[in-house]
Each structure stands twice: as structure tokens, then as C-alpha cells.
Amino acid sequence: MSVTKHRDKDIGFVEIDNPPVNAIGQAVRQGLLDAVRWAEQERLTRVILTGHGRAFAAGADAREFDGAPIEPHLPDVLNAIETSDVPWVAAINGVALGGGAEIAMACRMRIIAPGAQIGLPEVTLGVIPGAGGTVRLPRLVGLSDALEIITTGKPLVAADALRTGLVHAVEDDPVDAALAIPGETLACIVPTRELPAPKTDISLIAAAREKVAAKSRGQVAALRAIDVIEHGLDKPFGQALSMERAVFLELRSGEQARALRHVFFAERAAKAPDWLRSDPAEIARVAVVGGGTMGAGIAYALSNAGLTVTLVETDAEGAARATDNVARIIETSLGRGLIDRAGADDRRRRIGVTDDYSAAGGARLAIEAAFESMDVKRAVFARLSEALPSDAILATNTSYLDIDEIAASLPDPTRVLGLHFFAPAHIMKLLEIVRGAKTSDAALATGFALAKRLRKVPVLAGVCDGFIGNRILSRYREAADTLLIDGSTPSAVDAAMVEFGYAMGPYEAQDLSGLEIAHANRRRQDATRDPQRRYVPIADRLVALGRLGKKTGAGWYRYSDTGTRIEDPIVTDIVLAEARSAGVSRTVFSAEDIRDRLVLAMINEACDILHEGIAQSAADIDLVTVFGYGFPRWRGGLLHHADTLGAAEIVRRLGALSLEDPVAWKISPVLLECANDNLELAKWTRAPR
Ligand code: T1G
């Protein structure tokens, strides 16, 4: 499918029709170019352009970006539209993004529907607008708004598109409105390319650069977009277009764009595995047990998806706390404009809080989000098993505990699975769907269907300590703690990982989430820990001192009254004391050493997770690390990044590290296999199920 066209009297109607979101592939570009010629041959007086279905056009077809550009190139199509003697009017009925917005900007006029959006999200794919966006947008909205729209990649709602001058009108029916425009009005509108470019404003551009650099942490696209906008301002239109195109083509084949496209498509490919044939259960009501931070967040996420929730707590006091937690989330969402008053009332109506399990009787699914203790969970599941129908599916939100052990305590273990949400549960997109030894396919299918309904990114995980994400996180932290003993400091480690692209390093992150959670897990692991494996007790000593992180004023750092993070000599003394008692002669580690060790540790662990079948693919591990653990999206996720290093190089570096510590740095068989076969991790597969 591509473009349809017809005329009614002297007016042409052209519609982009490339389901599901009118991505602008080669056929669409050709169809638009043919439509320009057709309108001229038919001597039409105007063309009204729309998109079929829910989008005007979602942008260039990003699947084409891995290959050489295919003619007709979009800039040429847009030049033909813009310079045609038949004026085109964009009637924007749905999202007009990237190339879709650029098509609209090449039209003589733009009329948008109230619910539609228009924007240039190219930087989120690691590129810049490549079909005139950096040249036409400043002419339409001015330099300041153009810099903001292009460097953030955020789409504008209709009202803002009108306010900035990006569109001429907001109309309930853009096509009708386009028909009603008097011919002389249309004739008076200057083609975008003939509008004067805004004057260069050095301070504005410098401010934009500073704002982008503050949070880009290594990403280049937004900074390059600023360069192209700036240098295009005083160039003739055609030259500015050529300069933009050259930079777009350069970035499009670069590592960051490839990584961001990988995540974009992997996220959309995340769904139930092909072998899962069962139908999901029909879910209208869900019981959530535990109204703490996680339980309240899960309950709110469920209500957001139109589900009815019975939030069960242990007693009236717990129920009151749960009610407050839910209310707080609703108020915050209201305050952020994520929902309106009616939406807030709807969530309140959908979430019923109780201390009576029998109130959850009608639920076909329960999600347990109680305290991370096996005894507590077993007790909850026993009560759920009695209160809910025998075919209800029982899920646990546990982040570490063995769901087979929970399932074994029930008459029917096939109804148990893990649904591991990430805090805040109503915001974080990742959902680890943990398959127990006895989990039925129907239960699994219900988990994936729920993930889709919640618009989460589902990843299938097997049962092990920490499933996929937390197991990698444990290895990341172990490598960091070992570096502390061997010579580094919390702030040096944190700084190195922020430079890699994390929003914060492992120690700042622990102080934020609290040291007690990992401490409880280490105690649980005491009985099964490999005695040959180096154990670093620094965190244990901090917990013993009551230093649980920011909430106690001190953890790995000390915190001033204003929350400023301060390196603490108490921590340094503990590190030095532990190094002495371990007989370690400390050395200095560069930021590169730190990054290398922490990233290699995670890659190696991730490859063992693949080897053991805990994760299904490298792409799944990329989704977990990006959507659950803050791995830099523009690096494509942990194993996409590993493939940029290459398995052979990783094996070489791990080999050197294993001379220091053969236990901690034992090379994963998957890495050895990929190095030996010169295979990308992305292409490594286990034997079919
Ligand atoms: N290219 C190829 N496929 C795309 C696509 C695109 N641009 N956008 C969506 N799809 C596929 C997607 O993979 C999925 O496929 C299906 O459409 C539904 O998408 C020249 C260079 C439009 C807001 O960055 O933000 O233009 O899984 O599940 O949730 O300057 O898609 O069904 O097989 O996301 O309703 C710029 C990217 C491109 C917008 C709809 N455009 N898309 O969200 O559906 S670069 C973008 C989105 C560019 C120019 C530059 C969203 C959406 P499948 P979906 P949705």
C-alpha cells in the first residue's frame, strides 16, 4: 500500500495509506511524487493531503535505514510538493512525526485536528531531521521553538502547534476546513522555503547547546542538530538542505542510530514467545495483595488500563496506608497532567482497598506484592488459593525469591507465575514474566496479555536468583565493591559509570533505593554462596551502622540537609580497613578500567543467563537493561553494546581479568562460542524449546 488519490471537481485528495502508521517507505514517497505530477497534469487548484487511519504519517520507514537510501529521496519529494504550482494543504488527522511533519511543512498550509500531534522525534532514533526539518521549522516557528522541538524530539499537541505557528489552524475536521479555504487565501500563503530564516542568535544557540549537553551524556544527535540549524540559518535554502542531508546520512549509519533503532524495534517485538499457543484468561478484575509502594503502583497501573482492582491489605491500618499510597499516586498523576479530574475519579472508583481477602473473590488474577519473605508469600498464596476461583492465576511480584518454592506450597502450582514490576510500577515499562517449572502456558499467556494491556515491555525470564535484571545488577554491584577494596572509591566508580551514560552510578543508586534490600538478599544467599568467590562486606558494615542510604542521611555517601551527596571519610576508613583485613594492596583504577570491569562483568553474567535459558535472547536482555536498569538506550542495551566490542575482544579482556580472579571472571560458554564462531551475541540461540 502507499498513496491513493482522486479528484472532486478541481480539488485533489491524496491519502497516505501504509498501515499501521503510514511509515514513509519508498512506495509512499513514489506515490506522493506521482501525485504532484498528477495534480499538475489535471490542472487542479489544490491538493488536500491526509493519512489513512490513526496517523497522518509516522515518519520515514526506519527499517530502510540499515540499507542505502532508496529513490525517490524524501527531500526531493518535498521540494516537488513545495514548488508545485498546485498548492498542497496538509489535513493532519493523527500523528505527523519526523518525515510526516516534514511533509506537512512542505505543504502550503497545515490544518490539524484537536487530538493530533506533530513533531520531529528524530534525535530519539539517533539522527536529525533529514528532509528539511532543520531548515523549514525555524522559518515557521522561529529559532527558539525550533531548537526546543528538534533537540527534545517531543511532539506538540495541536494547541501548541498553533501557538508556535507550526500549523495555521486547529479544526475538528481538517479536510472540510481545507476545502473551505478561499482560493485567494491559499494563493497568499508563501511557500515555506520562501519565508525568511530567523536571524542567528548566538546566546540562544549556546543556551540550547548547554541544555542538551547537560543531559545528553555522550549522545550526539541533538548536538549535531543544533550545529545544522545554526549553520543553515545564513545559507541559501538549497545549501542548507544539502548540509542537513549529509549530516542525517552520516548519523543514520552511525552506532548510536543503529543502537536506538535496535531498541525501538526490539521493544515492539517484545511479546509472547512463538511456542506459546495458549489463550490468555479474560481478566476484568485483579486482586493485588500488599498496598505498599509497589502494590499501590501496580494497582494504579492496572486501573490505568481500565481494570478493576481489589487491593488487599493485612488489617485496617494497612488498608488505610494503602489508601493513602494510591491517593498519592493519583494526585501526582493529576498534578503532572497525566490524567484529568475525571480520570482521577475513574482510578479511585476502580481501586477498592480492603483487609478482607474474600472481597477479592471475583478476581481471575491476583498479584502478590507483599513483603519479600518466603513465609509471608506462602501465607498470602494460601489465602489467595482459598479466596479466589480455582482457575484464577496467582502471580508474585517478588524480585528475587524462588517462585517454584511458592508454587510448591499450593495444590495447583500451574497457576503460579512471576510478574516482576519495577518501581515505580505505574511508570517503569519493563515487566519480567517469570515462568516457574510448573507454570501453565495459560498462566504465561495471561501474563503477556496483561503486559500488552498495561503497555509494558514484557520479557520472559526463567527462575534463578534475581531472574534476569537483578542477577545482572548483583554482578554489577559485586564488581564495583571489588574495585573499592582493590583501590577505587564510590565517587570514582559512580563518575565513571555516569560518563558511560548511566543517569547515576551504582553507589548513588543504592543510596536512593536503600541498602537494606540487597543486604537482605546477601543474607539469604549466605547459605549457598560459593566459598571460593571473593565476598566484599563493606555494604554489610554500612547497614550495621544504620547507614541505609539517603533516607537515613547516610549510606555510601553522607547527605547534607539539602540532599547534597558528600564523600564520607567513614566509608573510606571502612574500605581501607576491609582492604587491610583482606590483605589487598590497593592500586589506582582509571575511569576506563572501572567502566571496562563493570560492563564486562554484566556482559559475562548476561551470557550465562542466556546459556542457562533464563533469558530467551540477547535482545530480551537489552530490553531488561534499558527499560529496567537505566543502561544507556543509545548504546542499544547491554548485549547490543557487547556486539560493538565483539565476543573475541570481550573474551580477550576477560581472559586477562581471570588471571587476577579465575572465579569471578570465569568466561561464559556463550562468549567462548561466539568468539570461536565469530558470531554476534544478537544471533546466538539455544536449541528450540
Ligand atoms: N518506521 C518503521 N516502522 C514503524 C515506524 C517507523 N517510523 N513507526 C512505527 N512503526 C511500526 C512499529 O514498529 C510497529 O510495527 C507498528 O508500526 C506500530 O507501531 C526523514 C529520518 C507512530 C507514535 O520516530 O513513535 O522520519 O510491531 O507499536 O504505539 O527526517 O510508532 O506492528 O510490526 O509504536 O500506536 C521518525 C516512530 C522516523 C516515530 C505509534 N518517526 N514511531 O505508536 O504503535 S525518522 C518516529 C512511533 C524520520 C525524517 C526522519 C510510534 C507511533 P509492528 P507502535 P503506537
TrEMBL record:
Keyword Isomerase listed: yes
Domain 3-hydroxyacyl-CoA dehydrogenase NAD binding: 286-461
Pfam family, one: 3HCDH_N
Annotated localization: Peroxisome
Predominant place of localization: other
Residue span, 3-hydroxyacyl-CoA dehydrogenase C-terminal domain: 466-559
Annotated InterPro entries: 3-OHacyl-CoA_DH_NAD-bd, 3HC_DH_C, Enoyl-CoA_hydra/iso
Assigned keywords, A-Z: Fatty acid metabolism, Isomerase, Lipid degradation, Lipid metabolism, Lyase, Multifunctional enzyme, Oxidoreductase, Peroxisome
Protein name, entry field: Enoyl-CoA hydratase/isomerase family protein
Organism: Thalassococcus arenae
